[in-house]
Amino acid sequence: MEQTQKADVIVTEGVTKVYAADGIPVNALNGIDLTIQSGEFTALVGPSGSGKTTFLNIISGLDSPTEGKVWLAGKVLSEMSGNELSDFRRDNIGFIFQAYNLIPVLSVEENVEYIMLLAGVPKAERHERVIAMLKAVGLEGVADRQPTQLSGGQQQRVAIARAMVSEPTIILADEPTANLDSKTGADLLEMMRRLNAETGMTFIFSTHDPMVMEGARRLITLRDGQIDSDEIK
Ligand SMILES: Nc1ncnc2c1ncn2[C@@H]1O[C@H](COP(=O)(O)OP(=O)(O)OP(=O)(O)O)[C@@H](O)[C@H]1O
């Protein structure tokens, strides 16, 4: 009988973060032990200041923990050199930001193909993958537009296409619906969930939005830098 084994894409062990703001220590994370497996669609929730952004920054290697270890796709982030880490991040993580962060002087197509360009994917293949990805996010026919000619919801779809097109190990999204009205945010989340089901790509996102939480398959609640609850729905 065939066995499907889920890989651990992120493992954290004792992740602690202390910021030194004006000499006063702030304990943002207090020993987080967590495993995220491939194919998860997981929301990170909790009150403002509970450590969500800090945790996302640490598991993506944008910031380093004061103590503890993070494995991403089997590699310990703190054991990589600066260049190795940035290549590893480019190949393994797709980021989606609250403010979309598209490059305004580039067309939609150029925004979506950018990471593939850096990774040396040939032009014809890049074009084919961008067009297929734009179709998957419901944005056919906008490849030549500038991001500013699109609505906020459409811009965030472009950002999702950009994050997913190079098939990273994990998609990380910090408050992806925070700048959208609740209907647009709910539609966007439904689309992310469909893409997760169709591609098996792993998603982890932070949110304050109860409608977005509803759509998650696993809900991890942080409180004062610790895991308060971890619920599979
Ligand atoms: N660069 C920093 N320097 C000092 N303290 C920081 C820094 N970044 C975050 N903090 C503090 O760390 C704690 C966790 O912040 P974090 O931004 O991770 O929380 P959050 O759950 O993402 O909050 P929000 O929901 O408001 O975005 C807070 O007390 C915050 O004030």
From TrEMBL:
Q: Which GO terms label this protein's molecular function in UniProt?
A: ATP binding; ATP hydrolysis activity; transmembrane transporter activity
Q: What are the residue boundaries of the ABC transporter domain, all occurrences included?
A: 10-232
Naturally occurring in which organism (per UniProt): Geodia barretti
Signal peptide interval: none
Q: What is this protein called?
A: Uncharacterized ABC transporter ATP-binding protein MJ0796
Keyword Nucleotide-binding carried by entry: yes
Which top-level group of life is the source organism from? Eukaryota
Q: Which Pfam families match?
A: ABC_tran (PF00005)
What keywords appear on the UniProt entry?
ATP-binding, Nucleotide-binding, Transport
Q: Which GO terms describe its cellular component?
A: membrane protein complex; plasma membrane
Q: Does the keyword RNA-binding apply?
A: no
